[in-house]
Specification:
Length: 130
């Protein structure tokens, strides 16, 4: 039996880099990101971000290309957010995706979960921030 485990740290921004992810909307946006991902067989390890972008740590099924996975997550989540709140919410087309090994999962999850702390502490990973 084949075994394939691919870990990705993905980042993308809101349309126009507008600060659309308000504290009130953030939990709902994160919930929709998780729900859409799980609907497509994508395992979500962490979701985080700030007002103008999100980070996800995900594991894809071996049958799903990263570009299609991100397209599905972004499209499905923005449709759900707009339907729930009557907004014109959207994501930028581009995204950044980096692979990492399973042994680095705890560090990547911690980095994503502490997104609100990073601007204050200047502890960003510049190569992955949009």
């Amino acid at each position: 039996m084949s075994r394939l485990r691919l870990f990705y740290h993905v980042v993308w921004a809101t349309r126009g880099r507008e600060p659309l992810i308000t504290p009130a909307l953030e939990p709902h946006i994160h919930r929709h990101l998780r729900t859409v991902a799980q609907r497509h067989g994508i395992l979500v390890h962490a979701v985080g971000g700030i007002a103008d972008h999100v980070h996800l740590a995900i594991t894809l099924p071996g049958t799903l290309a990263i570009s299609l996975a991100i397209q599905r997550i972004k499209g499905g989540s923005s449709r759900a957010i707009n339907a729930e709140f009557g907004l014109a919410f959207g994501w930028q087309t581009d995204f950044n995706a980096d692979t990492f090994s399973e042994r680095h999962l705890p560090q990547v999850v911690a980095y994503i979960e502490r997104q609100h702390e990073h601007p204050a502490t200047a502890s960003l990973w510049p190569e992955i921030e949009p």
